[in-house]
Design a protein that fits this description.
Elements lengths: L10 H8 L5 E6 L4 E4 L1 H7 L3 H4 L4 H4 L9 H8 L3 E9 L5 E13 L2 E11 H6 L22 H14 L5 E4 L6 H11 L7 E5 L5 H9 L11 E6 L6 H18 L7 E7 L3 H6 L5 H7 L3 E3 L10 H16 L5 E2 L1 H9 L5 H14 L6 E2 L6 H4 L28 H19 L4 H8 L3 H10 L13
Parallel strand pairs: 6-9, 6-10, 7-8, 8-9, 11-12
Antiparallel strand pairs: 1-2, 1-5, 3-4, 4-5
């Protein structure tokens, strides 16, 4: 729709109108600065207007090194990008997944900005069960690779817990497989496939969480008992945690008066419970109420003997999904996987395998060159025969081939931040001020570059 000259609408008028739309709307100018950001997308991305208005996208959101914002892509190409799924991180480090339709905005044939219409894939997946269509293929204990003693112990405890009517608390780092374990317990209890309901406390607004957690609707939504999987409780508002405590106490009383409850709570924490209580993220009464049966899910770095079997499992899974014929992962890549620390745990390995298989053509073996670009930057190509530079060159290590520019810049960033941390005695606030960035931005870069573990003593302030 064209607007006659002299009738341009006030931007506040437009902003208020967009707040009534049930899809996310994000508008940027030619420089990638946000000028409109409606209520729906604020809920999706757990952000406030003040966090992003008049700021560049790249200063607020973090994208994988080999990916680019669809808004910035449209600004560069001046062509629409439709129906693209995109994952990225907000300024608090929370991952968001959206499905985008993005268009250039033109005035007198000149591109002056871009507009993105967004559907929230991550939140839809988080409470898809509430909408009546739970995942059709849930994990079972048969899907677990049980090479390592830690996983064998976890499977034993999970099967034992599934024979009880108790609520269950799963603890372990994000991405370690807590939801997969919850699904396995659900299936071991012989509950219906469509009776697994998942709620993620990280990104849903408080009002929506209250509706999902406490609405009577959940007790009559399916025929027969169901599992209510409540993920990342440390991110739940403390007032809702207290209300959930009361709800679970009542559930326990009712469950003891019947042979089979209407629903089975399985809850998770991605932080150490004691640390979460001391930092004020977790209500102590809630923890004591829900920790009657607690199962620990180990991180991938503590069970690296499972890596090869996990790779085989994911390759078979994605072969079925993508209709491909990949057979195996090369020994060189497996060795790199053993050396890597996997801060994103099993989920990170799954994403690396998925992205690698997308990059393969007719090959049947996954090689180093197939790995995602951002992941390859963490290593040198094990098959590389390029000559190395003299060790006196800046930031070039002895025996290491010359780096790509992106890798060099990443290493330079890591080096400089580490020196700044040391100079300010690992005080996060002072270091962030000295580097001219926000605490959140610095925390993200510390995590990305795995720097915080390198401190000699003390904790970041």
């Amino acid at each position: 729709m064209s607007v006659p000259r002299g009738n341009y609408l006030d931007i506040q008028f437009v902003a208020q109108a967009l707040d009534h739309i049930q899809q996310g709307v994000h508008v940027v100018d030619l420089n990638g600065r946000t000028i409109l950001y409606n209520q729906k997308i604020r809920e999706m991305e757990s952000m406030e207007e003040t966090d992003i208005l008049d700021k560049r996208l790249v200063d607020v959101f973090q994208f994988h090194p080999d990916e680019r914002s669809t808004l910035l892509q449209v600004l560069a190409t001046k062509k629409p990008v439709l129906n693209v799924k995109q994952s990225y991180f907000n300024m608090r480090g929370h991952e968001i997944t959206t499905l985008n339709d993005t268009y250039p905005i033109t005035v007198e044939k000149n591109v002056v900005g871009a507009i993105e219409i967004t559907r929230d894939v991550s939140s839809m997946e988080q409470y898809i069960g509430h909408l009546g269509s739970a995942p059709s293929n849930l994990s079972t204990f048969d899907h677990w690779t049980d090479t390592s003693p830690l996983i064998k112990e976890m499977i034993f405890e999970g099967k034992k817990a599934s024979q009880t009517c108790s609520m269950i608390l799963l603890t372990g780092e994000a991405g370690s497989g807590k939801e997969r374990l919850a699904q396995s317990i659900h299936m071991e209890r012989q509950l219906g496939t469509h009776a697994f309901r998942s709620i993620d406390c990280r990104s849903l607004p408080t009002e929506r969480l209250q509706e999902l957690l406490f609405s009577k609707e959940k007790e009559t939504h399916t025929e027969g008992p169901s599992t209510w999987f409540i993920n990342h409780l440390e991110c739940l508002d403390l007032n809702l945690q207290k209300k959930l405590t009361q709800h679970l106490v009542e559930w326990r009383k009712e469950s003891r008066m019947t042979e089979r409850p209407n629903h089975y709570p399985i809850l998770t924490l991605s932080e150490d419970p004691i640390d979460a209580i001391q930092s004020g993220k977790l209500d102590k009464d809630l923890y004591y109420t829900m920790s009657e049966v607690t199962i620990f899910v180990p991180s991938l770095r503590d069970r690296k003997e499972d890596i090869r079997a996990l790779c085989t499992y994911f390759i078979n899974h994605f072969n079925t999904r993508f209709q491909t014929l990949i057979e195996e992962v090369s020994d060189e890549v497996i060795q790199l996987f053993y050396e890597y620390d996997w801060p994103g745990n099993v989920r990170e390995l799954e994403h690396v395998i998925e992205a690698s298989m997308f990059a393969m053509d007719q090959d049947t073996m996954l090689l180093f060159t197939h790995l995602p670009h951002y992941f390859r930057l963490k290593f040198e190509d094990p098959m590389s025969s390029k000559p190395t530079l003299d060790s006196s060159a800046f930031m070039v290590r002895e025996g290491k081939a010359i780096q790509a520019l992106d890798a060099f810049l990443q290493e330079a960033e890591s080096y400089y931040i580490q020196k700044a941390l040391q100079y300010h005695d690992y005080n996060i606030t002072k270091t962030a001020d000295a580097l001219g960035m926000s605490r959140q931005n610095l925390q993200y870069r510390l995590k990305k570059n795995n720097l915080i573990r390198q401190k000699k003593s003390g904790s970041p302030k």
